Every structure is written in structure tokens, then in C-alpha cells.
Amino acid sequence: MREASFYTRLDHAVVRCGLCRFSCQISPGQRGRCLVRENRDGTLYSLVYGLTIAEHVDPIEKKPLYHVLPGSRSYSVATVGCNFRCRHCQNYAISQPVEGTLPIRGHERTPAELVQAALANECQSIAYTYTEPTVYFEYAYDTAVLAKQAGLKNIFVSNGYISPEPLAALAPYLAAANIDLKGFSRTFYREVVGADLEQVLATIRDYHQQGIWLEITTLLIPGLNDDPAELRALASFIANELGVDTPWHLSAFFPTYQLLQPPPTPVKTLHLARDIGRSAGLQYIYLGNVRDASAGQTSCPGCANVVIDRSGYAVSSIAVSTGTCPTCSARIPGVWQ
Questions:
Q1: Distance separating alpha carbons of residues 205 and 141, to the nearest angstrom
Q2: d(C-alpha 218, C-alpha 198), whole Å
Q3: Angle value at C-alpha 269, between 264 and 270, nearest 5 degrees
Q4: For residue 312, pLDDT beyond 90
Q5: Exposed, middle or buried, 260 (CB in 10 Å: 0-12/13-18/19+)?
Q6: Per-residue pLDDT tens for 10-36?
Q7: Concatenated DSSP letters for 116-185?
Q8: Using an 8 Å Cβ cutoff, are 71 and 96 in contact?
Q9: What pTM was estimated for this model as a whole?
């Protein structure tokens, strides 16, 4: 347990958490929406500091990040907790409340131990992922500082709801982020995700303004967020506000957790979304959770040659390790060796 950062004390021992955009007002003895930050007599504490619920060595492509040290390993860590209530959460067992509460559990690991484990497993980065890393900010921040000193990159895989001040504090240590832009409808965000679309868009803009390399992921759920008009608006947001060289990952949905009625996403829906993204000018669009020979290929926008060839998470060839196409010398943006 550790005293939380970014909160203010109000009257009657009430506190207001400033870590994410929900800005929870928390009475003594209560927890915030994330269920891992608790007010104890007017002091806000992180209950998950130093408690990992998951640690794995992953290919960085699994995050997914395709323009960050391709073919490398990333040491992936998480604690319990999340500030969203996604009805289709794949990691609901460690992120979502059961009967209104969330048990605080995990293995004791110091930030220094996480960094040493990443180095011992020949990883080039640490990914804060699986659950929402914003809610264990203090733990992630302390780890990120040590990781950067050790020559490791730091990566957030996030729902995009962190407040500007903590993001600014973290930005010097954060090399890249993949943010889930889960849809482009206020109704979808309110009813399926439990959040506000406009706040997510504002957070994504903040990441971009901080100079953090961004990749965007959208899981397409039949009948809920796959309307072509919404996809056109989403693709235009990426192109116009983040840049046409921002990678967009389109993933197929499979029924899970509380969202069991929609069928799996048809491959043709992913292809349609890719066409929409290309029409918006996006240069790097990838398909996930689907068998497609070209789904993970990175092609040079200058000469169309394949510069990174992938099959699933496996990288078979890399010709752009320095960020320049070897054929036409066009720049391929990202975080390279």
C-alpha cells in the first residue's frame, strides 16, 4: 500500500482523486471507481502498489504495437483493477468487480524486481497492460523510472482516461502507448464501456501532444460499433488529429464476459473498416484475431514493398529496423532500434 498521487483533500475528510477523468469524490472508508484507491481517514491510498496479478514475457506485437521495436520481447505486468466497466472485457477476472467489490490480491514485487526480471528475460521493454495501468499509476511510474535508467522502453496499453497532470509526469519515461478507441459513439461508450467518448478523445490528444508514440486499437463488435459512418468518423479523427502515419489496429470480436449475444466479427467487416481507413488516408492498418496473409504486414507508403512481414505475433522479416525503407529511403515512423 502506498499513499496515492494526484488527489486533493476536501471537507469532512473527503478526497477528490485527480488521477483519471472520472475525478472520483471519495468519502472515508470508500474506494474510487477503480476499486483500488481507498480513502482512509482523509488520506488516499493505492491498495495495489507492489502487487502484480500478472507477469508474462510477450512479443511486443501482442500489445499490439507494430511500430515499436518489432520482433522484440516485452515484459508485461498488471495489478488488479480498472476504471471502465466494459461488458466485453477479456480480463474481467482481474479487472472487473464481483458483486460490487474487487479483492486486492497479487504477488509482492518491487519496481526494481520487475526491471531485473525484464532484463533477465532479454526484454527490451516493460508493458503495463492486461488491466488499466492508470489505476496503478504510482507502481507503474516508479517502475518506469528505473526501467528507463536500465535502458528499457516503457509502454502503456490503456483505455485512454488518464488526467493531463499525471500523464505529463509520466511522459518523460513513456516511449509508446496503444490506446483502445473502442468506438465512435457516445451511446456505445456510455452503455457498453461505462465512460465518455469525448474524454477519451481528449486523452488521446494529450498523449499525442506529449510526443508519445501512439497506436490505436478498435475491436469491432457486430451491431454495436461497426457502423460504416462511425468508422469513417473514427478514421478521420486518427488521420486529422494524430496523423495518417498513426497505426490503426482493427480486431475481431468473440463473445465473452457479459457480451455473449453478438456473433464473432465477420472478416468482411474488418476488410470494410480497412478500406474506410485507407480512404481516410491512413497508411498503416492492421487486422487482428483473423487469418489473413496481409493482416500484419507493414508496407512502405512510398514504394509499397513489405518492410516487416508478420504472421500473427511472429515476425519473419524486418527490413526497417532503423525507420527507413531500404528500397526507396522513405521514412517509416515508429520507435526503432
A1: 21
A2: 16
A3: 95
A4: no
A5: exposed
A6: 999 999 999 999 999 999 999 999 999
A7: HHHHHTT-SEEEE-SS-GGGGHHHHHHHHHHHHHTT-EEEEEE-S-B-HHHHHHHGGG--EEEEE---S-
A8: no
A9: 0.97
